[in-house]
Amino acid sequence: MEELVSLLVLTVALIVFSTFVQAPLRELANPNLTPNPSKAPWYFLGLQELLRYFHPMIAGVIIPTLILVGLAAVPYVDRNPSIKPGDRKLAITLFTMLFMFGATLTISGSFFRGPGFNWVWPWSQGLFFEL
After folding, report:
1. How many secondary structure helices (H) and strands (E) does the chain include?
2. Four-point Cα dihedral 13, 19, 24, 28, nearest 10
3. Which of 48, 88, 92, 128 has the fewest C-beta atoms lying within 10 Å of its C-beta?
4. Is 78 inside a domain boundary?
């Protein structure tokens, strides 16, 4: 019952918020004028950053496949039945390493890539990032 009340409160709050806050669409896309830098959405910036360093087959197929297979294999590798975080060091270490790898790629692709997707320092050349 608590979940239903929370769902209804959140739904009403979202409807009220969206009623009063304007969220205009941007102008229509112009294929003759692309933005520089042209970046993927934030959730794909890690893959775009990998493409900067590796061949597309490796960055777009092999590395994501290895990550997904590794995530699927964690329950079979770490067979510890305990639910205490202190007893699950292997699973927590693997997750933390994977999370930090993805976060590092996403942050570097978001804030440290400028025109031409070249490396820039945001404190000296400004941010080239849009939400």
Report:
1. 6, 0
2. 100
3. 92
4. yes
Q: What is the mean pLDDT of the chain?
A: 87
Does this model's pTM top 0.85? My answer is no
Is position 79 within any domain?
yes
Residue numbers of the domain that contains 79: 41-109
Q: Would you say 85 and 102 are in contact if contact means Cβ atoms under 8 Å apart? A: no
Banded pLDDT at 129 (limits 50, 70, 90): low
Number of structural domains the chain divides into: 1
Q: How far apart (Å, rounded) are the C-alpha atoms in residues 127 and 129? A: 6
**Nearest-10 crossing angle of helices 89-111, 63-77:** 160
Report if residue 73 sits inside a domain: yes
107 token code pair: 């942050």
Q: Residue 129: phi, psi to the nearest 5?
A: -140, 135
